[in-house]
Amino acid sequence: MIWVVFGMVKFGIEFVPQEAYWKTIYYAIQAEKRGFDNLWITDHYNNRNVYVTLTAAAIYTKKIVLGPGVTNPYLINPVMTAQSIASLDELAPGRVVLGIGAGDKTTLAATGVEMRKPLTAVVETIEIFRRMMERKRVTFEGQVFKAMGTKFNFKPKGQIPIYVGAQGPKMLETAGRIGDGVLINASHPKDVDYAVGRIKKGVSEAGKKLTDVDVTAYTSFSVHKQEEKAAKAAVPVVAFIVAGSPNVILERHDVDLKKADKIRGALKAGDFGQAFGSVSPEMIEAFSVCGTPDLCIEKIDRLLKAGISQFVVGSPIGPNVRKSIDLISETIIPHFKK
Ligand code: F42
Asked: Which of 57, 183, 200, 297 is least surrounded by Cβ atoms within 10 Å, i.e. has the fewest?
């Protein structure tokens, strides 16, 4: 599969289903009409259910490609992920993809589920998923998962592209080796450069080319005609990213570790004023793609040069989601798809 056609980047949009369904679906319909190629719905136990949201989105849209971005093998067993995706593909034939990752440590921990051998778990999930999709009887004994002669009573349609959500070096390499796409949780060229280097290693081990894999930047994005308004909307998301980032990534962006600790502590204590007030312009620059449409175009261009083939606008999207989708569609997408 060649993902970048004549150098044309794809645009995806991510929604966290934390609001009423109708709102997410309303935005999804708008995104499709306004020229987005992909719709990604996040999966965390504390938000609305990912497959219910995707089902509604599949019914109300016609051509946008959609999938979980990303589900994990710990809360949803690989066989059930295969079942959910195969069922969704009946509703939206040929436009369903699977996004799979290790899962978010904090929300998994809250459910008492242990994230054992995350790399192995993701690899085994993909193996079971692909074999289930071929409607074979699957007997598989992995280190984390087993399938004891599982087989669907229905025929899954088509081949489903698999995108691996990856940040760590081994997960990135594995994603390049066995994935059809990679979702890189990053907004800055430094992080994307690093990720693409690891993905290339996996890709070449598998005898593939980088263009065989849809290298996707899953960004925190905020656009507004006034730069300050775009930045203000990005602050809460950036605070959470800083708090959740390992030191190696903070150091890559020269973020003062003490300041990051202060944000972590404030968020833990529920002191959002303190946490958001401690977010610096440098942090916003490092952990979001944010600004006026022209500035965002410049930043997306840098990510394209770093090797991405899909750009995902993720939370917060902008101070007003509906208006920001319109603005992206009128100014940013045409710049890259003219
Ligand atoms: N997580 C969610 O829960 N929900 C989402 O909606 C979501 C969206 C999302 C989108 C893009 C994206 O990139 C990530 C996203 N995530 C989401 C987060 C994702 O689920 C992961 O938490 C995130 O990608 C971080 O995981 P990672 O890719 O960095 O992998 C971690 C877990 C890791 O430890 N990786 C190591 C590495 O080097 O890459 C692997 C370590 C290893 O090799 N372990 C061995 C093994 O077999 O697993 C075992 C070693 C031993 O000692 O046993």
From this structure: 297
